[in-house]
Protein: Glutathione S-transferase
Amino acid sequence: MAATKENPIIFYDLVGANGKSWSPNPYKTRLSLNYKGIPYRTEYIAFPDIEPKMKELGLAPFSSTFPHYTLPGKSSVALCLMIAIYLDKTYPAPQYPAIFAPGTAGFQHMLIPARSTAGASLHPLIHPLIHPQIPRILDPRSVEYVRRTRGARLNPLSEDEAAAKWKAARDNLTGLAQSLAFNDETGAVGPFMMGDRVSFADFALAGVFYWIRNVEGPDSIRLKEMFEWDGGRWEKHWKAVQEIENKSSEVV
Structure:
């Protein structure tokens, strides 16, 4: 049975101390739901409550290594990419817009979360710069949980290490921008990875921007710099994705 406003999909999202969403992974699924126009209702969960909630729902652990549970976390569609594929299968085109154009799922998987021509993923470069700042946006219970379970990841990089990661992140996005420039040569001009067509790869990249904005704040110097790179391509990308975020199918 298709989701309706009266019987929407239940979407679990990580919550910050301000009562709002902040995590990049659930954000990809939120965008997928919004883009397809599928009604959903958000239930916000703090870090310490993820495992109890998933067990209450009878869902299997995401992995055998810690953390055992994460969000999104439905057993057979635990990964954000798999959730998007599931949504395309369950809510197919043409009634619902497709996230994956035919034959592009594997291609998009290679791009997630934005790969340079050297094949280095963007997320591992950004993660050690942003993750140590996460406690600033969490409630005390979540801060204690994160420090207890992920303490080593909260250690900040040295100034030199941070500068090297940041340069590598810029090189990564510049390599991606150079590849995407070929779209312009074929007439597929637009802000997205596939020109004017939205894809899941766009949601994955936007998740990085979303994460930085919510952890460092809307005046983040890093985010401002990123949006100036490559002739402003990434700011245009972000604004285009925000239109999908703002055109929400959430049932409030």
